[in-house]
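Changelog note: in this version the structure field was regenerated for every chain. One regenerated record is shown below for reference.
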Amino acid sequence: MTKRSLTCAALFLALELTGDGGKAVPARAQALDANVGSDSGLNVIVALQGQVIMKRKGWSAFAPARLGTTLQRGDLLRLEGSSQAKVVCANLTISDVPRDLSGVPCPATRPILIYLGDKVTATRSYGEGAFPRVVAPRKTKLLDPRPTLRWTPVAGATSYKIIVRGQKARGQNPYWNMNVPSVTKLDYPAGAPPLEADTDYKLIVSASGHQSDEETEPGLGFALLRSDKAKEARDAEKKIRSLGLPDAPTRLLIAHLYAAYDLKAEAIDQLEGIPETLQEPAPARLLGALYLAIGLSRHAEKHYLRALEFSRNVNDEEGQALAHKELGRIYDEALGNRNAAIQHLESALKWYKKLGDQQTAGQIEDRLAKRR
């Protein structure tokens, strides 16, 4: 038995023994409920031994599912042979995938995990240049009043000046600043005032006569999440951790949760804590989507290229389609590389036609017609 097989077997045993927070709902009862409930609920495959195939609503063909594959109402699942799979449902219970062809095996209850869909959208981005660009936090809400600060390096810079400015509703302008050596990451200093509620902040980094404000796109600031929403998010995170999953699927679920609360910086932190050696496409794709949402196209490109490589390695057909489609969008809308955009969109079109997703294939054909 391989190391991966042993890990999967141990995970299945652990999930069978979880307490109330991870108790599985009877599969047949859940299958009956799969066609009702909210379209916004996000369900995630968190354990897979063998192979499960799926057919999305609107597809005409089945394709292999992977660890981290997200599911919604209308999707169909089928286990191959003696395979087993488990899903964390949108209400944060764990369910077995039934043996026979079924819908998503989750109850129709108020979802905690939310499907974002087009809410995570591409943002036109500046190319790499001489000025430092803020990586985090930007375009995000936060739970942590002392976040980690990150920025891109400037060639030849021996130090950086860090400024955090805040604008309160009543017009006050609290801020702090400090100089740091040639690093691109700073844990929020113990001596600096923590972030306050009802205040909009912006991180500004300067070096070698340039500063991050040269990126003039609006909305690059950040703020603490409203207290009632923060409590919701923290309570849901505790529930995810109580499921007893291994570190990687736990981080992936928390990242999905954080993204739904607009906690993009902390969602990225969760995903970047997953070792690349796992070579799972889903975390890399979500990282790409989150970096797109905050206007960092080069970062998004890097992670979608990784997702594409991982998807090829494990024969993830939908993963290849998604990665090609998003890379085509990045090169087309944000980086201005027409030839690369066409190449990736043509590859995406091939995969979506194989999956029988005529709607997405038609959208890609329309985009290609405008670029050729």
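Spot check on this record: Residues 10 and 37 are 32 Å apart (CA to CA). The longest strand covers residues 43-55.
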